[in-house]
Amino acid sequence: MIEVRFVSADGTRIQRVQGAEGERLLEVAQNAGQPLEGTCEGQMACSTCHVIVAPEDFGRLVPASEEEEDMLDLAMGAVRTSRLACQIMLRPELYGLTVQMPGGHRDMHRR
Ligand code: FES
Hints:
The protein is α+β, with helices and mostly antiparallel strands. The chain has a single domain, classed as Beta-grasp domain (Ubiquitin-like (UB roll), Roll), CATH 3.10.20.30. A hairpin with a 6-residue loop joins strand 1 and strand 2. The longest helix is centred in the middle third of the chain and has 9 residues. The structure holds FE2/S2 (inorganic) cluster (FES). FE2/S2 (inorganic) cluster binds next to loops.
């Protein structure tokens, strides 16, 4: 299993969750009760699955497609390391991936 960590929007809570290889980060987050709507179910048409990736983990992800970048431009509170959770498939190399829910303080980016 691959461990991922979800940080609450205000940065005060961290939830560690195990996901399976090939699972989408969006599904892992939703199964864990994280507040990601994922309205379009991965069709890259909503941006409600927006998460902020920890800067140290960002480079481990497969780069975003142009379509994803376009959706992120519309996402509320998007930052340089924002991604759509529906576009991130879990791989063993992503063990320990940390993402924050958007909308609150951006504690991970203040360091
Ligand atoms: Fe809609 Fe990811 S679920 S863009």
